[in-house]
Design goal:
This protein is mostly beta strands and 124 residues long. It has one helix and eight strands. The radius of gyration is 14 Å and the shape is globular.
C-alpha cells in the first residue's frame, strides 16, 4: 500500500470523526506523505500555517525519524523521535499530535530514508 493511500485513509477517518461530532464545516483536514532522509538541515514536513489547529505525524517507514519544531532538523536539534514502523506501512510506527503550534516542522533520519504521514487540521 502506498503512503498516499494510507494518508487518504487517515484523511477520510478524520473527516468521519469530525462529521460525527457535528464539527463545523470550517475545519479542514489535509494529509500529505513526505519522504525524509539524512540530508543536512532536514526535510520540511510542513510549512508554518497561522490557521493550523493541529498536525499529526506518523512514521510509516522502517527508519526512526527525528522531528524538529522549526526548519533545521539535525541529530542534535530535534524535539521528538518517531519510532520506526515494524514493517513498511504496518501502522505501528511512532505517532505524535501537535496542537497550538503554528510554525514549520522538519525531520531528519540518521541514515537512509523513511516516510512520514502528515495530517494537518486547519480552520478556514
Amino acid at each position: 500500500m502506498e503512503v498516499q493511500t494510507i494518508a487518504n485513509g487517515l484523511l477520510e477517518n478524520i473527516k468521519d470523526i469530525l462529521n460525527a461530532g457535528g464539527a463545523q464545516s470550517s475545519v479542514v483536514p489535509t494529509s500529505t506523505p513526505v519522504t525524509v532522509d539524512d540530508t543536512e538541515g532536514g526535510t520540511s514536513l510542513i510549512a508554518a500555517n497561522p490557521d493550523r489547529l493541529s498536525v499529526t505525524l506518523q512514521n510509516v517507514g522502517i527508519v526512526p525519524c527525528l522531528i524538529c519544531l522549526g526548519d533545521d532538523a539535525s541529530d542534535s536539534n530535534y524535539s521528538a523521535v518517531l519510532a520506526a514502523d515494524t514493517d513498511i506501512r504496518a501502522g505501528k510506527g511512532g505517532v505524535i499530535e501537535i496542537r497550538d503550534y503554528l510554525g514549520s516542522i522538519s525531520g531528519i533520519t540518521e541514515a537512509d530514508s523513511t516516510d512520514i504521514a502528515v495530517t494537518e487540521i486547519t480552520k478556514t
